[in-house]
Every structure is written in structure tokens, then in C-alpha cells.
Specification:
alpha/beta; 3 domains
Length: 557
């Protein structure tokens, strides 16, 4: 009896795992990675393939749930039937990769749940009212509130409570509870989005490739710079008082952050180009803190790849890597190789373009103050990076002395050798010490450090600082040094009245240039202009500067 029960449960799991709905859609030529549970499947599938195929897919999903329970009912024990319902649901949520490949399609399982409830009632495993009441609760919550995830959990909670009142074996009651637990785990990201206010309701316009000719969809990957940023997300705010009271350590929070897969945490609304195209942009995050990118690059790359897959499933055409994400996986190359069906960009070209556009104006204004550039000393901080080296290359021929500061002195020397050949009259010095900035009249800084790196002792009176770092490289206290001027760089205002549910810390209605590049690629459709790897083509820099102007993007000065 035990062996037969176990065998039937295994069969129920395998039956539940068969992606019949996805198979129907695939046979119809539908990309199931675009039409999927992340995009409120029923609404989008109806739009994509029509009523007949949608109904067939739903019927097959319900049918496999019904079949799994029906086979288990042959033993005549209600607890095995309820456990078979659980096994079928688990199979639907977690199809074996051995059978269906490394990334099998995973739906919500609502139609399967309907099938197992119907079978439980038909076979007499539970009374009819215990199977129909959860469906009524589901319909009521979905109709009143509009959130499918909340409706599913409410229905399963009702079933769990109903099972607890019935004269069932404890195994059956635990099976009903396990159904609720499994669904809660499946919908954990939806619950997080409910807390963040980003979960779509039934009927909300959800992006779907080809659905609207005047709308494009992009996604952008962000991460917290500090634990303060981590708390700012409402889904994690409850952790803060626990840490402050010593219930959970900061180390524990960091470990939690490292275990979390990418999630949708926000959305940019209201972006509309001059030519009338609407751009929707999802903000995704895997909450890794900056030190993780340095200490665990493999984990960071894996999370970036997972983020790209999530972006694709959400309907995005372009996926941008922001902040420290921009340097993982060989600056996006490995991410693109792992997820070839969505365009990946690290935003380097337009970031360089905004700087390239800003530097002549800065130097012109500096000279207009009666200061001789050929007698001036310029410091470039973060010169090991692509952006800062681009700055150094631009200004080297125009100043008397150039100080290049970075962490890797050997790499700095190789870069300096290149500049010395092009700017023969300029004295070029490389160092890892910030103290040398004290002699700089102009400071250009573009690091990815999560904390300020330039403080008053590093700055002489009257110095100008062009700060490309995000967060800012120059501590706010440097503005107290007499005559010092701090100029933020790489900040762009998209066209239209952009709003966001989270603070990107670039000012209201403003985004970093790397995010703007993501939006421009989506708007123009010129995906081959993406920025990947350490090299940035001059023609792409010029392209983004020109297209930004045409589309209405404005560099914030």
C-alpha cells in the first residue's frame, strides 16, 4: 500500500510537470518566454492566440491536475488524493530539468489547481462545498481587488481551513497546508511587488511584444549601495527594526541579500519621446551590496544573467546594467552570451557621450575665468575604468599636467603610455594616492565606489570637480573649501514627465546616462548599438548623443 501510494504520487508529480499549455502555444508559433505568467498569462495569451487556443491550453492544464488526482483516488484514501493534488502542483511549479531542459516554462498553476479541486470533489475525497468555496473566494478576491496572486492564496487558505474542519487523516490536512505553503513560495515575488506597489492588476496594460506599435519596453538592473538603500524598499523595511534591536545581525541581512534572485522593484512611467513613442522601463534588482561584486564576481554574474531572463519574461526588449552591474561578466559580454534573445547593454557609450559633450563646456568656462589650461593641472580619479580613461584621453592634450589615479598602478602606466604618445607636451603622472589631487585645478572623477573618495584635504581652494560617480565621489563637505565648484555629470532627463515609485537618487525626473542609453536603444530599435565589453566605439558614442537630442533626452548641467 505504501509503495503503491508513493508510486501514484510520483506519477502525479510527473503528470503535473508536463508543460501541456506551453506545448500548445509553442505548436502555434508562440514564444512562451514572452507569453508567460509574469505577464498575466490569460490576458496576454488571449491577445496572442485567441480564445480557442487559450481555452485549449487552460483545459489541458486543468485536465492534468484532474487526471493526477483521479489516478490517486483509485486507492480509495482521501489523504493520498490530497497529497496527489500537492504533488501535481509541485510538478507544475518545478518541472524536472532533466526532462524539460535547464529553463522549463513555469506558470502560476491556477488552472491546474482548479482541476485538482474538481477531481477532489468528483472522487469524494472532500465534500463539494470544500472544493467550490475556495473557487468562489478566488473569484471574489480577483474580481474585487484584481490581484491574481492574492486571489490564489486566499482560495488556498480557504481550502486549508476547510480541510482542517473535515474528518480527514492528518496527512490530508498537512497536504492542504503544504499546497498553501507551496503557492506562497511561488508567489513570494508577487507579494513583494504588492508591498512595493508594483504588482499589476487584472486588466492593467502589461507589455507584450508587438501588442502596441507606439510603446517599447526596457528593463534596468539596479542594486542598493548601502543597507540604508536596502531598507528603502518596502518589502525589506520590516528588517530594519529587527537589526536595530539585535534580533538579526547585519551579516544575516547581507547573507539574505546574497540569496535573493532578481526581482521587479519599480517602474518608470511617463517617458514619451518627441516622436510620440512611449517607453516603459522596469527596474529590477538583486540586492547585492557593492563589496559582493568585488568579492564574489561569479555570484554577481549569475544574478545578472537571472535578471536578464526575468527582463525578457517581463516583455522587455533591452536590458541595461547599472552601477556595479555594468562591470560584471566581462562588462556584460557573458550576460549577453547566456541570454542571447534580449539586448544587453552596460550603458558605456552614452555615458561617455554625455561626458564628451560636457567637457568642452567645462574647459571653456574654466578658461573664461582667466585660467590658462596649458598651465593647469587636471586630476582624473578612477582612471582604470573605461569612463574615466575616456575623460583622461579627452583632456590630456589640453592641460599642462595630468594626474591619473586608480587602484591598479600597472594598468595605469599602460594607459598613461598611450596618452603620452598622443599628448607629447603634457606631463602625465600615475598614482594610487588621492593626496596628489591637492595640486589639481580640475578634478574629473568617475569611480564605482559606494562611498565618497574625495574629501576637503584632497582639494585645493578654487578647484573645479566634475563628479561622474554614482553615488557621488566627492563628499558634500568639499563644497565648504573656498572657491570649489562641484559639477555633477552623467545625469539625463528623459522626455515627458517621468515618474518612479522609487528614488534613483539622481534628482526628480532624472536618470543616469547608462539607463538613458537603455531607453534610447529601445526607442530607436537599433539594438546593435549596445555597449558591451571594455571597448566603446566612437561611432556609437556619436549615435547616442545625436539620437538623444532627436528624441528629447536632455543632459543635466
Amino acid at each position: 500500500m505504501v509503495f503503491l501510494s508513493a508510486l501514484l504520487l510520483l506519477v502525479a508529480f510527473l503528470v503535473g510537470s508536463v508543460p501541456v499549455g506551453s506545448a500548445v502555444l509553442s505548436r502555434a508559433g508562440v514564444n512562451v518566454r514572452v507569453t508567460n505568467a509574469h505577464n498575466l498569462g490569460v490576458d496576454n495569451v488571449l491577445h496572442r492566440v485567441g480564445v480557442r487556443l487559450s481555452a485549449l491550453g487552460a483545459l489541458l492544464d486543468a485536465g492534468k491536475g484532474f487526471l493526477a488526482v483521479l489516478m490517486a483516488s483509485s486507492l480509495g484514501t482521501p489523504e493520498v488524493s490530497v497529497l496527489a493534488a500537492l504533488a501535481a502542483y509541485l510538478g507544475h511549479l518545478n518541472p524536472p530539468r532533466l526532462l524539460y531542459g535547464p529553463n522549463p516554462p513555469r506558470g502560476r498553476g491556477n488552472m491546474l489547481l482548479l482541476g485538482v479541486l474538481a477531481a477532489l470533489a468528483v472522487t469524494g475525497a472532500v465534500p463539494l462545498w470544500a472544493a467550490t468555496l475556495p473557487v468562489m473566494v478566488y473569484a471574489g478576491v480577483a474580481g474585487f481587488w484584481g490581484y491574481v496572486s492574492a486571489a490564489t492564496l486566499a482560495g488556498l487558505l480557504t481550502f486549508t481551513l476547510a480541510a482542517a474542519t473535515l474528518n480527514l487523516d492528518p496527512a490530508a490536512k498537512l497536504g492542504a497546508l503544504a499546497l498553501l505553503v507551496a503557492a506562497t513560495w511561488r508567489f513570494k515575488e508577487n507579494l513583494g511587488r504588492l508591498l512595493d506597489g508594483t504588482e499589476p492588476r487584472l486588466g492593467d496594460p502589461v507589455p507584450l511584444a508587438g501588442r502596441r506599435s507606439d510603446e517599447v519596453v526596457a528593463a534596468f538592473m539596479i542594486h542598493p549601495m548601502t543597507l540604508e538603500n536596502f531598507w528603502s524598499a518596502r518589502r525589506f523595511a520590516w528588517l530594519r527594526p529587527l537589526v536595530e534591536r539585535g534580533v538579526i545581525s547585519e551579516k544575516g541581512v547581507r547573507q539574505l541579500a546574497e540569496s535573493l534572485r532578481p526581482m521587479k522593484v519599480g517602474e518608470l512611467h511617463g517617458i514619451r519621446t518627441v516622436d510620440g513613442k512611449s517607453i516603459r522601463c522596469y527596474l529590477l534588482s538583486s540586492p547585492l551590496l557593492p563589496d559582493v561584486f568585488r568579492d564574489q564576481p561569479e555570484l554577481a554574474t549569475r544574478r545578472a544573467i537571472e535578471g536578464a531572463r526575468l527582463a525578457q519574461e517581463l516583455g522587455a526588449e533591452v536590458f541595461g546594467l547599472g552601477a556595479f552591474w555594468s562591470v560584471v561578466g566581462n562588462k556584460g559580454v557573458d550576460v549577453q552570451a547566456a541570454v542571447p534573445d534580449i539586448t544587453i547593454t552596460n550603458g558605456g557609450a552614452y555615458t561617455s557621450g554625455t561626458i564628451k559633450a560636457a567637457i568642452p563646456g567645462i574647459l571653456e568656462h574654466f578658461a573664461a575665468q582667466g585660467r590658462d589650461l596649458k598651465q593647469a593641472t587636471a586630476g582624473v580619479v578612477g582612471a582604470n575604468g573605461v569612463v574615466a580613461f575616456g575623460i583622461a584621453r579627452t583632456i590630456a592634450p589640453q592641460v599642462g599636467k595630468l594626474i591619473m589615479i586608480g587602484r591598479d598602478l600597472e594598468r595605469l602606466e599602460r594607459s598613461a603610455a598611450t596618452l603620452r604618445r598622443a599628448a607629447k607636451t603634457t606631463e602625465i603622472v600615475t598614482t594610487t594616492s588621492y593626496d596628489t589631487l591637492k595640486e589639481a585645478d580640475l578634478i574629473f572623477t568617475a569611480t564605482s565606489d559606494p562611498n565618497p573618495v574625495i574629501f576637503p584635504p584632497h582639494v585645493k581652494p578654487g578647484a573645479w570637480i566634475f563628479d561622474e560617480g554614482r553615488p557621488a565621489d566627492a563628499h558634500e563637505s568639499v563644497q565648504a573649501v573656498p572657491g570649489v565648484r562641484v559639477i555633477p555629470g552623467g545625469v539625463v532627463r528623459p522626455p515627458g514627465g517621468m515618474t518612479s515609485n522609487i528614488d534613483l537618487q539622481f534628482g526628480e525626473g532624472q536618470v543616469p546616462a547608462c539607463l538613458a542609453e537603455t531607453l534610447i536603444i529601445a526607442a530607436t530599435g537599433e539594438h546593435w548599438r549596445k555597449s558591451l565589453g571594455p571597448q566603446t566605439l566612437s561611432e556609437n558614442i556619436n549615435f547616442f548623443v545625436e539620437q538623444a537630442d532627436k528624441l528629447g533626452f536632455q543632459v543635466v548641467e
